[in-house]
């Protein structure tokens, strides 16, 4: 099993959800996060005053999948989250030792 974490632009969430669901992956955790990378924030104006926004609003999507589904899920996220502009985000894949479904006690892939 692997854990796929993607940091994406907020307006891309629905497209990513649809793409991943079309692959038969139905569970995901979504968190609103703030951060920066190469984008390094931006300047905004509010009531005539200019200020720097250092941390950009993003969405963190976490999905646990079997090893066989990692590549299709990563490609689906990459394809749908891409806008060809700086700040599109990142995808991280980590090994996951086990998963346990609390209700039934199922473990491993059966718990997904």
From TrEMBL:
PROSITE patterns: PII_GLNB_CTER (PS00638), PII_GLNB_DOM (PS51343). GO terms for molecular function: ATP binding; enzyme regulator activity. Gene3D superfamilies: 3.30.70.120. It comes from the Bacteria. SMART domains: P-II. InterPro entries: N-reg_PII, N-reg_PII-like_a/b, N-reg_PII/ATP_PRibTrfase_C, N-reg_PII_CS. GO terms for biological process: regulation of nitrogen utilization. Pfam families: P-II (PF00543). GO terms for cellular component: cytosol. Signal peptide: none annotated. Belongs to the P(II) protein family. This is Nitrogen regulatory protein P-II 2. It comes from Leptospirillum ferrooxidans (strain C2-3). The lineage of its organism: Bacteria, Pseudomonadati, Nitrospirota, Nitrospiria, Nitrospirales. The gene is glnK.
């Amino acid at each position: 099993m692997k854990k796929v974490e993607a940091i994406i632009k907020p307006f891309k969430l629905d497209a990513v959800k649809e793409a991943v669901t079309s692959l038969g992956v139905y569970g995901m955790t979504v968190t609103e996060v703030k951060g920066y990378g190469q984008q390094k924030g931006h300047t905004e104006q509010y009531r005539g005053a200019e200020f720097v926004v250092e941390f950009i609003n993003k969405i963190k999507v976490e999905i646990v999948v079997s090893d066989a589904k990692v590549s299709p899920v990563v490609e689906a996220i990459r394809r749908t989250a891409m806008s060809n502009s700086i700040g599109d985000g990142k995808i991280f894949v980590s090994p996951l030792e086990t998963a346990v479904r609390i209700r039934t006690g199922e473990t491993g892939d059966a718990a997904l």
